[in-house]
Design brief:
The chain is α+β, with helices and mostly antiparallel strands and 111 residues long. It is built from 4 helices and 3 strands; from the N terminus they run E-E-H-E-H-H-H. It has 2 domains: 40 residues; 53 residues, no CATH class. 35% of the residues lie in helices and 14% in strands. Strands 2-1-3 form a 3-stranded antiparallel sheet, with no helix packed on it. A hairpin with a 5-residue loop joins strand 1 and strand 2. The longest helix has 14 residues. It starts with a strand and ends in a 7-residue tail after the last helix.
Length: 111
């Protein structure tokens, strides 16, 4: 059941339309605001998810970050893991465990 984005050329509004089957999607849709059929299909935004290993490989720990970056424990954990990897330091499973607890917000549960 795809959701498509459309722009109405008559009223200049954008909207998302859900189609329950292929036949319905093949028809020319009507604008839900002005009932016009002068609709242009837009390219929708998309995202992709990276694995933890890919995020770690792509993360540049030497790039300066603003203050908001360090407010998120997940970012701090990613930075710590990357720096340890860059230095060739194996800080053991306890380090990994502590970083993961911090990243998930559970580090305070043990205190």
């Amino acid at each position: 059941m795809p959701i498509y984005e459309y722009h109405c050329q008559a009223c200049d509004r954008e909207q998302s339309l859900l189609f329950l089957n292929q036949r319905e999607a093949a028809k020319s849709p009507r604008c839900k605001y002005c009932d016009s059929r002068r609709m242009t299909r837009l390219i929708s935004r998309c995202t992709y998810h990276q694995s933890e290993a890919a995020r770690l490989d792509n993360f540049d720990a030497s790039t300066p970050r603003d203050e908001s970056f360090y407010r998120d424990a997940r970012n701090v954990g990613l930075w710590a893991k990357k720096r340890a990897k860059e230095m060739g330091a194996d800080l053991g499973s306890q380090f990994e465990e502590t970083v993961e607890k911090a990243r998930s917000g559970k580090v305070l549960d043990d205190l």
